[in-house]
Structure formats: structure tokens, C-alpha cells
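Q: I'm writing a short explainer about CinA family protein for a general audience and would like to include a description of its predicted shape. Could you first generate the structure from this sequence?
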Amino acid sequence: MTNDLIDLATKVGMALQARRLVLATAESCTGGGVSQAVTEIAGSTGWFECGFVTYSNASKTELLEVPAALIAQFGSVSEEVAGAMAEGALANSNADVALSTTGIAGPTGAVPGKPVGTVCFGWARGDTTYTERLVFQGDRAAVREQTVAHALRGLLRFIE
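A: Of course. Here's the predicted structure. Afterward I'll give you a sentence or two in plain language.
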């Protein structure tokens, strides 16, 4: 875990605490990396509820209630699914805000229109959901690290 990620997770924790918000995560390509980053921070129990690691499509459907039809229509790496994952994390936890990551970290897995490094993000709070799609460069570890950092930065923007 880099110092930059720990600093970013600290800022997230301070922002959540100041707003009395509790976070849940729904992660696919990061495999729990966001949860790992936030739990590096002492006292995160006051603002972090839980993390869902839903790597398979079946787990997205079973644990987060992402409709199988949505995955079939748009693919698991899509803004639509990322948004549904964040909403599912909210619905299946006691959190106030949720974030999600789903992507192709590589080195294989690219499909037409979705190269390696494609990641979709979701942030949800109440009735508001925001999604984003980015393409990161680098090897698998670099894509995952950039994804964790962007998910946390996006959360800061989303709650401010």
C-alpha cells in the first residue's frame, strides 16, 4: 500500500466522519483493494461498514442484486453495472454512501470496445448515482492501484 493511497484514504475518512456518513464498497477488478486502503486507517470502523468483493457475474447478481439481464445487455464492465453495484451495496448494507469498481485489469480479457485497463466506477448515495468509465495504462498492478485511487478521489468529489 503506497503512502499516497494511505493519505487519500485518510482524507476520505475525515470527509466521511465530518459528514457523519458510513461507506460500503462493491469491488470486482480491485478485489478488495479499496476496502484494504480504507481499513489501513485507524478508526475506520467509525465510517466503513463493509466491502463486497463480487468478482463473478453470479456474485454480482446474488450479493448485490445486479439484474442478470443488465449484465447480459451491457456486460459486467459497464457504467450500468457499476451503478447497479453501488446501489446494491447501499441496499444490502447499513451504509449511507457506496462506491463500486468493475473493470479489465489485464493482461488479458479485452473485448471489442473495452481494452485492457477499462474500468467503470459507481458512487451512490440516497437516490443519486454517478458513474464513470476510464481507461488506465500499465500492467495489472498499476491498473488496480490507479483504480483504487480514482475510486477514492471520486468518492471525495461525490460527497462534497
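A: For your explainer, you could say: The chain has a mean pLDDT of 98.
Q: Perfect, that's easy to follow.
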